[in-house]
Write a structure and sequence with these properties.
Number of helices: 3
Shape: rod-shaped
Radius of gyration: 23 Å
Number of strands: 0
Strand content: under 5%
Structural class: mainly alpha
Helix content: over 70%
Distance between the termini: 41 Å
Number of domains: 2
Order of helices and strands: HHH
Largest sheet: none
Length: 84
Amino acid sequence: MSQITFSKNEKELIVRKIQLYFSEELQQKIGQFDAEFLLDFISQELGAYYYNRGVYDAQEALAAKLDDIRDVIYQLEQHTDFQR
């Protein structure tokens, strides 16, 4: 897996959200540098866990769709004397 990175605009948005969280929930002010440092830490140390969860969810969604497709194909099958 490649390193998780964000565009400049995405990073700015996430940093603002971190600062807002600290302000509203923890009643603490956190500067932009510290918020960026925290974001980098979370991305490097925890990002893979969230990424993998997304991969697992995508696999489950795909498996469910494949089951639906198998059912539709099975319904198209016509009766013959051949056995599987």
